[in-house]
Design a protein that fits this description.
The chain has 9 helices and 13 strands. It folds into 2 domains: 106 residues, Aminopeptidase (3-Layer(aba) Sandwich); 164 residues, 3-Layer(aba) Sandwich (Aminopeptidase), CATH 3.40.630.30. It has an 11-stranded mixed beta sheet. The structure holds coenzyme A. The site of coenzyme A has 24 residues, from helix 1, strand 3, helix 3, strand 4 and helix 4. Monomer.
Amino acid sequence: MPKPLSAADHAAVHDLADAANSADGVRPLSERTLLDLDLLHESVRHLLVWQGGELAAYAQLGRERQGELVVHPAHRRAGHGRNLLTNLAGQGAAAVWAHGDLPAARALAASVGWEPVRILRKLSRPLAEEDSAPVTLPEGYGIRGFVPGQDEADWLRINALAFADHPEQGRVTRNDLDRLIAQDWFDPAGLLLLTDASGAVIGSHWTKVDPAERAPAADGSPVPAGEVSVVALDPAVHGRGLAAPLTAAGLAHLAARGLRSVVLYVDDDNTAALRTYRRLGFTDLEVHAQYAPVSAARPA
Ligand SMILES: CC(C)(COP(=O)(O)OP(=O)(O)OC[C@H]1O[C@@H](n2cnc3c(N)ncnc32)[C@H](O)[C@@H]1OP(=O)(O)O)[C@@H](O)C(=O)NCCC(=O)NCCS
């Protein structure tokens, strides 16, 4: 049975992730991986490599057999990355994420014969004061903030419908949602719900403000940035032109909070979403790649 991490282990993983972020310019562990540091979950495993009292490397084998790993900048090129990747594979990892798709990650994956199987793009767009103007919705539709204790089931229903084919987002559980709501950054007013004429929830736009997030402002300088975290529309109302105003309503919320930049993540093969976001002025910021053994990369 896997053991939970101690408070000291937990803090050391955060320090290691911060050190890698400073060295590489990209955060090596996803929000979900960091959240799952707290989770005593049969399907989440933690691998920690200590050297001279310092955490030299960390890997997590998460749900859906996906892994993430990071080596402290002061302990690189010493074999820790390959050891952890081999260990993850031995414990059943089907794939690992390389945030930023850095040359070292690419080289490490290639050295064990793994190939990129999924590309996630991080896009950004400057926000101007004009973006905070209220958004006009088609007749009968409305937008309101999430009410904790009331809207959880509706949000989960729309999320599951909208992301039925998505490997992670479609599987968000009530427990995951409760843990997200408990995060410091959670702001119910930033979790917008789209309602129809009957008041039923038919979509949502979860905007997020992580104090550590930075992206280019209009003049190119890095400034605190909000995030278009999850835009979900019930498939039954697709094709009614609701995605653009729902997205714009989230941008307006972030701009009204004084943010001057916004980021989002989108799968490279989600052509429709990429086109929508590019039309709204988003441009490429980072690329994140998922690597898997060659046999998984090439379906038989
Ligand atoms: C990618 C990362 C995990 C590599 O960790 P590491 O401990 O330095 O890697 P290793 O020492 O085990 O290197 C194994 C092989 O990977 C390749 N490699 C690793 N870093 C490399 C680099 N900077 N340039 C070229 N090749 C590199 C080499 O083939 C190396 O073998 P060699 O040292 O015998 O030549 C580390 O750079 C890191 O934490 N990056 C940020 C997080 C990340 O990208 N994680 C995703 C990993 S898939």
